[in-house]
Amino acid sequence: MSRAAVLESTDEAVAGIEDGSTVLVGGFGLAGMPFDLIDALIRQGAKDLTIVSNNAGNGDVGLAALLAAGRVRKVVCSFPRQVDSYVFDALYREGKIELEVVPQGNLAERMRAAGAGIGAFYCPTAVGTPLAEGKEVRTIDGRDYLLEYPIKGDYALISAYRSDPMGNLVYRKTARNFGPVMATAATTTVVQVDEVVPLGGLDPEAVVTPSIYVDRVVPVETRHYTVQGAR
Amino acid sequence: MTTDTTAAARSASASRAPSAVDHPLSMAEVAAVIARDIPAGAFVNLGIGRPTRIADHLPEELGVVLHTENGMLGMGPKAEGARIDPDLTNAGKVPVTELPGAAYFHHADSFAMMRGGHLDVCVLGAYQVSERGDLANWHTGEPGDIPAVGGAMDLAIGAKDVYVMMTLFTKSGAPKLVRQCTYPLTGIGCVSRVYTEVATFDLLPQGVHVRETYGITLDELRSRLDVELH
């Protein structure tokens, strides 16, 4: 993996994302959502995308805007239905989008496995539930587990707080969420950051995502949205 | 727990179930009852919705550390006004605060600490709980209802003790503590205790034990539930 490129525009940052790509999109609700990269992806025009993200969009911004633009064929997520997920809800009810529901911890661990070179793993989550259908069950030391496969992305679009010119990343509070895991699990990892600090400006002991996982970094104006209360 | 299951023995055992108060509890009072049972210094996850309110009844000196699955230990109360930070929310996406000693981590770590058995207690809401501790709380299964599981299945099998906080009956009066769940399951054999407005139940390998009642007699409870009570 060559060193990360620090780019000037989000349009450069999302260049090359092809139709039909699997794109891992960071964020838990709106915290950590890479709004600027998604807006650039909408301008870029790639379609038939499979989006892997915790939610399926909130309000009209970020992932919801990408869905509204008709670019997404399938959403793999843990929690689509929220008080403000009306864009997804309408597409789903009209049969215009596929949904694969994955328990939140499995979503994270399956991406972690992809990034860590694990072929598959046995996990106790969802045993005996409808989400176990079609999965191999293995009993280990008297407890049942399901065989879970990695989720790998062609691209990851994530948001971090600061980067250095190498692409080392630190995050801010619970906006960290899926970012560090997704960064490891995609062929090309694209990060929007609030700030690129000079080399040596990040404490190596405090780096959360080491630069080896990062391909493209683009600084953006800080932009936040707060939506109160999912159900 | 006695193995004598004659009616007389059951009745004698039943009469010992403590009646804590003489009226059904409000859900705020249920939250207080649960808070009372959480051990000092425990690591605890409070599910979205009603269980969130338990935090209001945990005195600071108890030293309980709250986990939120979106990547934090040491979560503080809901943020208001100028303290609202869009980068700091709970699992319900509500802005919250951090307490001294808080720690942040990514999602795979957050669920590893859950699945790995490091959380002491998790409190979840439920549509139904079976007498064997099966939990149904993620999906009504009705046509047109969009399935959304979030962290419910991971939490159900993760914490050392999984408590449920719910009303014992639906609005139409149907019991929610049942022999067998009819709603789609979240986890099997995972619930150890059920807190409701009229009684608290321990789900033991031997069966359902009534821990406390609130404004209801055991006979009345028995008549309204289709599970055997010990």
From TrEMBL, chain A:
Indicate yes or no for the key word Chaperone.
Answer: no
Q: Which domain of life is it from?
A: Bacteria
Q: Which Pfam families match?
A: CoA_trans
List the InterPro entries hit by this protein, alphabetically.
3-oxoacid_CoA-transf_A, CoA_trans_fam_I, CoA_transf_BS, NagB/RpiA_transferase-like
Its transmembrane ranges are none
List the keywords (alphabetical): Transferase
Provide the family line: Belongs to the 3-oxoacid CoA-transferase subunit A family.
- Protein name according to UniProt: 3-oxoadipate CoA-transferase subunit A
